[in-house]
Amino acid sequence: MLTLLPARARIAVAVLATCAAALTGCSGGDGGSSPSASPAPSTASPSAGRALITIKDFAFHPATLRVAPGTEVTVINKDAASHTVTATSGKAFDTGEVKPGQTVTFEAPARPGSYPYICTIHPTMNGSLTVR
Ligand SMILES: [Cu+2]
Predict the structure, then answer these.
(1) Average of per-residue pLDDT across 88-103
(2) Cα of 89 from ligand 1 centre, angstroms
(3) Which of 79, 109, 105, 69 is nearest to 91 (CA)?
(4) Mean pLDDT, to the nearest integer, of 81-97?
């Protein structure tokens, strides 16, 4: 599982995913054999896969995200200020400080439910993670 990978590897996976989303495949030169060129075998698991929260302009995108229990959630901070993704009730999840340009991951709760979260540095920023 991804949880066993060192943090650096997980960041690399996130960068690859971002690259693939932006360019529809990073290896644009070799037309034809794109599937075999993928170095990450875990990119095609839709239900237990990964999810992405982008922080930009002091807001979470998307503001509401639905994931499967235990999903690895990637957080990318595209602002010039630090932010956090912190569950407001209990200690369901908390990324701690995510510095400008930094990418971190956290594991979504195993228990289904709706988990509102805020940025503890800017408490007016809020979003919701739905686990089901
Ligand atoms: Cu913030």
Answers:
(1) 96
(2) 18
(3) 109
(4) 96
- Expressed in angstroms and rounded, the spacing between residue 2 Cα and the centre of ligand 1 is 26
> How far, in Å, from the CA of 14 to the mean position of ligand 1?
21
CATH of the domain at 70: 2.60.40.420
Q: How far is the CA of 16 from the centre of ligand 1 (A)?
A: 25
* In contact, 111 and 122? CB cutoff 8 Å: no
- pLDDT, tens digit, for every residue of 18-63? 434 444 444 444 444 444 444 444 444 444 567 999 999 999 999 9
> In terms of Cα–Cα distance, which of 132, 60, 47 is closest to 95?
60
CA of 29 relative to ligand 1 center, distance in Å? 39
Host domain of residue 113 = 47-131
Number of structural domains in the chain: 1
